[in-house]
Amino acid sequence: MSGLRRWIGGLIIPRVQLPVVNPKRNASNKGRIISQKRPLLPKQVWPIRALLELAGYLRDLALFNVAIDSKLRGCDLVKLAVVDLVKDDHIRERVSVTQCKTKKPVQFELTENTRETVIALVRSPELLCCRFMFSSRFHDRPHISTRQYDRLVRDWVTSIGLEPTGYGTHSIRRTKAAEIYRPAWMHGTFINAACGMLTSILRKTQKMRIGSFLMPKPKTQALRRHMLALPMYLI
């Protein structure tokens, strides 16, 4: 009797194979680079530093230098307070912060060039009565957002002729670590490459746009003197 019921049920409710429906909406990441972001090379770090310094962007220069030395995530970098880096009008030699993602403390050291930039930013009028190192220009935000930091990174890599889709905030975080594991024989070639790369960029146009600032083209010899005056470390 049970077998008859199953046979009758199979006739009443036949098994139907539904057709496969292909989605009409395209993927949101179609045509985008979704792999790991590439780190910056020393020959790319130096032109960005020089352009920010020549443009007078003190906050962005300090942000770029601290981001490379600290190797912090963007969410931790933008929330750095003045007391985290400065103590009694002196820059801390070793900084310790608690990461937002892992809730674990991490320590890092700042190079001499970064310490000079940070102390100049702390003494500037734009940082008076500010709690955070990288304050936002909007009154309702105490510090810059991670999205604004990502836009700044894209402007930096675009200013030296790189494709912005291949770089991001994680590129800045990976820069120093990648340099540590790079072979030592490659370091000497990056100094001349940095000078040549920055010179070729500034030769293309009489004015170069960095964010919303128009910077006049400096002379080539003055640019080379500026590059040679930089500290003799790569990162």
UniProtKB/TrEMBL annotation:
<dbReference type="GO" id="GO:0015074">
    <property type="term" value="P:DNA integration"/>
</dbReference>
<protein>
    <submittedName>
        <fullName>Phage integrase family protein</fullName>
    </submittedName>
</protein>
<feature type="domain" description="Tyr recombinase">
    <location>
        <begin position="55"/>
        <end position="182"/>
    </location>
</feature>
<dbReference type="InterPro" id="IPR011010">
    <property type="entry name" value="DNA_brk_join_enz"/>
</dbReference>
<dbReference type="Pfam" id="PF00589">
    <property type="entry name" value="Phage_integrase"/>
</dbReference>
<dbReference type="InterPro" id="IPR013762">
    <property type="entry name" value="Integrase-like_cat_sf"/>
</dbReference>
<keyword id="KW-0233">DNA recombination</keyword>
<dbReference type="InterPro" id="IPR002104">
    <property type="entry name" value="Integrase_catalytic"/>
</dbReference>
<dbReference type="GO" id="GO:0006310">
    <property type="term" value="P:DNA recombination"/>
</dbReference>
<dbReference type="GO" id="GO:0003677">
    <property type="term" value="F:DNA binding"/>
</dbReference>
